[in-house]
């Protein structure tokens, strides 16, 4: 192809995108002038767009997903081999990579014993909610059907997962919502609702008990929480929080569903976020990093106690989990997940996330010292948020347009960072970092250098 033909081709692609694709979370009016970035290739931590610009990706594909980095031929090979051999069969049957991946995953999740496959985080969470609802019917005469979720958490984009979403800007205008979901307050100590107190973690968790008692403990079946709130502002739980949540759940016979869609598979420096807090979940949901975006796969993982409830009564035709996920039977997802896990293990990427994550946090604290607009830095492993404020004393959030300028400035310098996006009104002010688990200290230095310049400029 000649250079001229190539340029025409690129222009055609940009035009086709501009004229045909409906992009997520975007106001398209602005795309009429300049279309969105069109990504064409990636290797390791770096990607290249259609115009040949190279970027260091500090957000793992924009959504905490490409944990093992771009261009992994061994995953592509595993997927190809599997697809040529056996691409799909409904999950009523088994598959070789499905069985192998489920067993390998469960080895890392003591106390949990069953994996249900589907293909997005939202779908995995929907499965969990259906399990809770069906348990309510099986054990509690339909009564214990309510599910408590937390302000600022996010669990997906479908109407029912939005019903459990604590971000008003994601929910607005999509109601009415599925009944039976009840909100409890967030646990962001920097934004304490109870003034400056010593035991914020316990205090924030006690809100669960208040909500349970208000609703009636015999109506509450489960709580769904992110181990660390991601899109709602990188909120690490304060000390004592999870212990109190667990104690309350045990007291009132409430199942604990942990949404590890972002934190799972090593992002926080442990295989799963809940391991930092000594929690014993009943249900765990996983997506994003399970196959690092090389294929779509998500998992709803439960205890044997839960699974047992669904295989008990052969005489009752409604007594099992009457769910189906067509693409849960796509063998590419499991094949990619298996190879993804091998890479994480062989390259010690969970350990790398812990070590380089600590380094990143140290560098972010330096930025905080340097720039008065940095109100708070939070995170664990290779997962962090930088909350920007107008004034440190009043903690008044910086306008989201200013946070957007920081993102754009970094991008112009060749570094892609994210920010809380259409989450909570007034709080789209947190810059988000989630580099791939392969990140080296030199990558972090490059990210920090770009942020340093961008923060200086605002
Ligand atoms: C914590 C959490 N749960 C669930 C989801 C939904 O996942 P998906 O977009 O794959 O449906 C997301 C997506 O960002 C998420 O951050």
Walkthrough of the structure:
With 458 residues, the protein is α/β, with parallel strands linked by helices. The protein is 39% helix and 16% strand. The protein has 14 helices and 16 strands. It has helices at 3-20, 60-64, 73-85, 96-107, 121-140, 159-163, 168-171, 200-215, 241-251, 304-309, 331-346, 349-370, 400-412, 441-457, and strands at 39-43, 46-49, 54-57, 114-118, 146-150, 181-184, 220-225, 255-259, 283-286, 298-302, 374-379, 384-391, 396-397, 415-416, 418-419, 430-433. A seven-stranded mixed sheet has the order 4-10-9-8-7-5-6, sandwiched between helices. Strands 11, 12, 13, 15 and 16 form a five-stranded antiparallel sheet that branches. Strands 1-2-3-14 form a four-stranded mixed sheet. A hairpin with a 4-residue loop joins strand 2 (46-49) and strand 3 (54-57). The model has no long low-confidence stretch (mean pLDDT 96). Pyridoxal-5'-phosphate (PLP) binds at residues 63, 120-122, 125, 154-157, 226, 230-231, 259, 261-262, 287.
Biggest β-sheet: count, sense, barrel? 7 strands, mixed
Overall structural class, as computed from helix and strand content, comes to: alpha/beta
Order of helices and strands: HEEEHHHEHEHHEHEHEEEHHHEEEHEEEH
Amino-to-carboxy terminus distance: 44 Å
Q: Which spans have pLDDT < 50 for at least 5 consecutive residues?
A: none
CATH hierarchy class name of the largest domain? Alpha Beta
Instruction: Give the proportion of residues in helices.
Output: 25-40%
State mean pLDDT (0 to 100 scale). Answer: 96
How does the overall form come out from the CA principal axes? globular
Q: What molecules are bound to this protein?
A: pyridoxal-5'-phosphate
Question: How large a portion of the residues is in β-strands, by DSSP E?
Answer: 15-25%
* Total DSSP E strands: 16
Radius of gyration: 22 Å
Count of spatially separate domains: 2
So, CATH architecture of the largest domain? 3-Layer(aba) Sandwich
CATH homologous superfamily grouping of the largest domain: Type I PLP-dependent aspartate aminotransferase-like (Major domain)
Question: What is the spatial order of strands in the main beta sheet?
Answer: 4-10-9-8-7-5-6
Q: The CATH topology of the largest domain is what?
A: Aspartate Aminotransferase, domain 2
Report the total helices.
14
């Amino acid at each position: 192809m000649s250079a001229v033909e190539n340029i025409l081709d690129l222009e055609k692609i940009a035009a086709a995108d501009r004229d045909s694709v409906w992009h997520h979370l975007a106001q398209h009016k602005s795309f009429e002038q300049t279309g969105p970035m069109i990504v064409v290739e990636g290797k390791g931590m770096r990607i290249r767009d259609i115009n040949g610009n190279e970027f260091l990706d500090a957000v793992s594909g924009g959504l905490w997903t490409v944990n093992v980095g771009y261009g992994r031929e061994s995953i592509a090979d595993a997927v190809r081999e599997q697809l040529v051999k056996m691409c799909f069969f409904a999950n009523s049957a088994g598959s070789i990579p499905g069985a192998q991946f489920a067993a390998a995953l469960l080895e890392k999740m003591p106390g949990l014993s069953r994996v249900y496959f589907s293909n997005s985080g939202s779908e995995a969470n929907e499965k969990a909610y259906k399990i809770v609802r069906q348990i309510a019917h099986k054990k509690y005469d339909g009564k214990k059907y309510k599910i408590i979720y937390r302000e600022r958490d996010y669990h997906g984009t479908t109407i029912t997962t939005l019903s459990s979403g604590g971000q008003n800007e994601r929910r607005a205008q999509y109601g009415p919502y599925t009944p039976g979901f009840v909100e409890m307050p967030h646990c962001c100590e920097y934004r304490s609702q109870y003034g400056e107190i010593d035991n914020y973690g316990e205090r924030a968790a006690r809100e669960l008990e208040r909500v349970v008692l208000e609703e009636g403990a015999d109506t509450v079946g489960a709580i769904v929480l992110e181990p660390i709130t991601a899109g709602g502002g990188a909120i690490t739980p304060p000390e004592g929080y999870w212990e109190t949540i667990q104690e309350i759940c045990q007291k009132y016979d409430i199942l604990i569903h942990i949404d590890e869609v972002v934190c799972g598979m090593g992002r926080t420096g442990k295989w799963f976020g809940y391991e930092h807090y000594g929690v014993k979940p009943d249900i765990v949901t996983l997506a994003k990093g399970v196959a690092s975006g090389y294929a779509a796969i998500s998992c709803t993982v439960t205890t044997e106690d839960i699974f047992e409830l669904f295989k008990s009564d052969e005489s009752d035709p409604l007594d099992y989990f009457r769910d189906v996920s067509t693409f849960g039977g796509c063998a590419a997802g499991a094949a990619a997940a298996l190879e993804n896990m091998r890479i994480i293990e062989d390259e010690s990427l969970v350990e790398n996330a812990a070590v380089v994550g600590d380094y990143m946090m140290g560098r972010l604290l330096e930025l905080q010292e340097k720039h008065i607009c940095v109100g708070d830095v939070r995170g664990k492993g290779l997962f962090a948020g930088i909350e920007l404020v107008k004034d440190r004393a009043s903690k008044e959030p910086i306008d989201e347009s200013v946070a957007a300028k920081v993102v754009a400035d970094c991008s112009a310098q060749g570094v892609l960072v994210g920010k809380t996006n259409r989450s909570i009104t007034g709080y789209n002010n947190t810059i988000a970092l989630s580099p791939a688990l392969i990140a080296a200290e030199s990558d972090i230095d490059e990210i920090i250098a770009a942020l340093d310049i961008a923060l200086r400029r605002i």
